[in-house]
Amino acid sequence: MTQIIVVTSGKGGVGKTTSSAAIATGLALKGHRTVVIDFDIGLRNLDLIMGCERRVVYDFVNVINGEANLNQALIKDKRCDKLYILPASQTRDKNALTQEGVGKVLSLLAEQFEYIICDSPAGIENGAMMALYYADLAIVTTNPEVSSVRDSDRIVGMLQSKSRRAEQGLEPVKELLLLTRYAPERVSSGEMLSVVDVEEILAIPLLGVIPESQSVLKASNSGVPVILDQESDAGIAYSDSVARLLGEELPFRFITEEKKGFLKRIFGN
Amino acid sequence: MSLLDYFKSDKKVNTAATAKERLQIIVAHQRGERDAPDYFPQMKHEIIEVIRKYVNVGPDQISVQLDQNDEKLSVLELNVTLPDP
């Protein structure tokens, strides 16, 4: 049974694409056939984060319009043989994604994949609504910051009213919180909302906490999903999140301040 | 910066607590309107305008709220703080 997962947030720049790339890669590494779709029509970037930007020939909209078949548009990941990418189109036509067209492509993908990850664009326009419409599970990506938390709450509302599951009166979309760019030292100095604060406000279960990390920028610079950097805390935190998604119970790491040793205090990192 | 300022700035202001408080209020408000019908914001706006045509009150002295009491009953609550005559 294929599971459709939307990575969404409302607000832009919180880490949806980074998280989509990391989680899709993580699921594939665990042996599951996974495809990750870029829903950001006109502003595609998932291809860059995945490092396959020069291999894009056909895209999602071409498939919807019948200009290419699905297998022509799917890009096989070079590092992970169970992972495929479906890039967004660079068209400026906002209504390129139709509910019917998206549904058709998703049901074709469901024939060959276990997990379909939908990387949502920011905002609450057509692209974002299409990305969440067919979802079984939503990963609500949030930064510990007022505007991001508020927008996440709006998106939670939309998942509960505008999704296919809501419209057809089925079991509601399962919503999970992914807190990104978390800085424990700022939390302990009272400058940043804590995990508990955000959980309490949004009232949805926690999937993972990704610490603010320099490795995320390094990973995007080189087009390698950060989860492949298992030296970095962000990479490890994404692996933990993927394991939880697959039903494992793991303690949350990197949510408390790391005590700096004597030498670290003097010489820095 | 004077030496005195240096000691003052040492006092930590917990802005995260302020953020949480503000979010709890705005999110509760947002959720109140989440289940409301699509026409609700427009209707609310018009009700406020009608009241303000007759009485000189600010928008913060009027609250229009829709409460879902149970499956079959929704209550439209209108609260107006009238100024002294």
From TrEMBL, chain A:
Q: Of which family is this protein a member?
A: Belongs to the ParA family. MinD subfamily.
* ATP-binding in keyword set: yes
- The molecule here is called Septum site-determining protein MinD
Look up and give the organism this protein is from: Shewanella surugensis
Role description: ATPase required for the correct placement of the division site. Cell division inhibitors MinC and MinD act in concert to form an inhibitor capable of blocking formation of the polar Z ring septums. Rapidly oscillates between the poles of the cell to destabilize FtsZ filaments that have formed before they mature into polar Z rings.
Q: Which residues form the CobQ/CobB/MinD/ParA nucleotide binding domain?
A: 5-226
Keywords on record: ATP-binding, Cell cycle, Cell division, Nucleotide-binding, Septation
Per UniProt, subunit arrangement is:
Interacts with MinC and FtsZ.
UniProtKB/TrEMBL annotation, chain B:
Specify one Pfam family. Answer: MinE
| InterPro entries in the record | MinE (IPR005527), MinE_sf (IPR036707)
What Gene Ontology terms for biological process does this UniProt record contain?
A: cell division
Keywords of this entry = Cell cycle, Cell division
Bilayer-crossing regions: none
Asked if Transmembrane is a keyword of the record, the answer is no
Function in brief = Prevents the cell division inhibition by proteins MinC and MinD at internal division sites while permitting inhibition at polar sites. This ensures cell division at the proper site by restricting the formation of a division septum at the midpoint of the long axis of the cell.
Q: Which family does it belong to?
A: Belongs to the MinE family.
- Record-given protein name: Cell division topological specificity factor
Gene name for this UniProt entry: minE
